[in-house]
Write a structure and sequence with these properties.
The complex is a heterodimer of chains A (132) and B (276). Helices cover 42% and strands 22% of the residues of chain A. By secondary structure, chain A is an alpha/beta fold. In chain A, α1 links the parallel β1 and β2. Classes of the chains: A alpha/beta (132), B alpha+beta (276).
């Protein structure tokens, strides 16, 4: 793999429109670049093994394999990317479940997009990022 | 004299019989009054059960509404928010690769799509919430599409009523609407036929038209509607196929296992023995 200062990002989300938005957002930030998109958990796990991204944005409520199950599979498959849940659910249960399953962050989709980008940078520096 | 009004486990009240001091009731009169009180109890119980089941149905529909909002509008709004951020960046930095015009176009499209999703949701719930079920909602849909196009649409619905759950009904209704909307807009068809059948534990839904078939259509024409239909079919754990039969036209077919079949498979052992 080529070594660059850029952070490679992958997104797993079953909403096509939101994936497009995230792709647009990541394109805005020169330090980030998108290496893959997956519309479901299983494809996501496979793609993560192929592309070995630094960062994975993972939707929580997906049809088929849900976010937590996908997270567990990713960890079980030794994917060492930092994994951030990106969701519209602000229920405490979901946050706890995600962190228990070893997520590196939990962001709400309705926070300011600038904050999403800033959080991704912080996550790359090893910080746990959680929306208010 | 008082006769209890209730059923096995609930006491609703008593039926009081006013009598003169010296009057007594014959045994047959007592039996008759006890029976009347029993019938009143049964009627009250039945009414309570009906209210409860309506409440549950309403509860389920609310859950569906929440899910639908999550899957459509919430996503669209997040997307629009991102586009606004991009617009701000594009305006602040004129040298950037992206132009405000491009982003404005994205915004416009995003808002249109959000409106479309909202309309779809409103239609679904207007058709559903009036409590007349899928049968009536399909009839209304066919009328609506007949009125706005020259396509002759035939509805052949042989599903037993209340076979499907409210959730399944909404997905089926929206898939049919999406397919019809494609027939009307892109297929150049003069006739369409909608069939709904129960085949054992599955439900078969088909929308067939006599138009120009899939190959002849513009590439993008079917794209958006197809995604919607696929997503809904996945929610039903169903299979959606689009084919162009040799005789011409297009056939959209959906097959899924209905919930009653699934429930019978899993829930039956858990039922208490006395309930039949």
């Amino acid at each position: 793999m080529n070594e660059t200062a850029e952070t490679s990002v992958m997104v797993i989300d079953d909403h096509p429109l939101f994936r497009k938005g995230v792709a647009d957002l990541i394109r805005m930030e020169p330090a980030l670049h998108l290496v893959g998109e997956a519309a479901d958990g299983e494809t996501g796990v496979r793609l993560a093994q192929e592309t070995d991204p630094d960062l994975i944005l993972l939707d929580l409520n997906m049809k088929g394999l849900d976010g937590i199950a996908t997270l567990q599979r990713l960890r079980a498959a030794d994917v060492d990317a930092r994994i951030i849940m990106l969701t519209v659910s602000d229920s405490e249960e979901d946050v706890v479940a995600a962190l228990r399953a070893d997520a590196d962050g939990y962001l709400l989709k309705d926070i300011e997009p600038e904050d999403i980008l800033a959080s991704l940078q912080r996550a790359m520096r090893g910080r746990l990022v959680i929306s208010e | 004299m008082a006769f209890p009004v209730g059923d096995q486990d609930q006491r609703f009240g008593v039926l009081l019989v006013d009598m003169g001091d010296s009057e007594t009731l014959e045994t047959w009169q007592q039996r008759l009054l006890a029976a009347v009180a029993g019938h009143i109890g049964t009627a009250i119980d039945l009414q309570q059960r009906m209210r409860e089941s309506r409440r549950l149905a309403l509860h389920e529909e609310r859950g569906i509404l929440a899910r639908e909002l999550h899957d459509s509008l919430a996503q669209s709004l997040s997307y629009l928010k991102i586009q606004v951020t991009r617009l701000a960046a594009a305006l602040n930095d004129p040298s950037d690769r992206m132009t405000p015009q491009g982003v404005i176009e994205e915004l416009r499209e995003g808002i249109n799509s959000a409106y479309r999703q909202l309309r779809e949701l409103l239609t679904t719930f207007r058709l559903k919430m009036d409590d007349r079920g899928l049968r009536r909602a399909l009839q209304d849909t066919v009328q609506e599409f007949r009125a706005r196009s020259a396509v002759d649409i035939i509805l052949d619905n042989q599903l037993p009523s209340s076979l499907l759950s409210p959730n399944e009904e909404i997905h089926v209704l929206q898939i049919v609407r999406e397919a019809l909307s494609n027939v009307v807009r892109h297929a150049k068809a003069s006739q369409a036929r909608i069939t709904l059948r129960r085949v054992g534990e599955s439900v078969d839904v088909a929308i067939i038209d006599n138009g120009r078939g899939l190959e002849a259509r513009p590439e993008r024409a079917y794209h958006y509607g197809l995604t919607i239909m696929r997503e809904r079919s996945e929610s039903l754990n169903g299979e959606l196929t689009l084919t162009s039969p040799p005789g011409g036209g297009t056939r959209v077919a959906l097959r899924f296992r209905h919930r009653s079949a699934l429930a019978q498979g899993t829930a039956r052992p858990a039922l208490p023995g006395g309930v039949r």
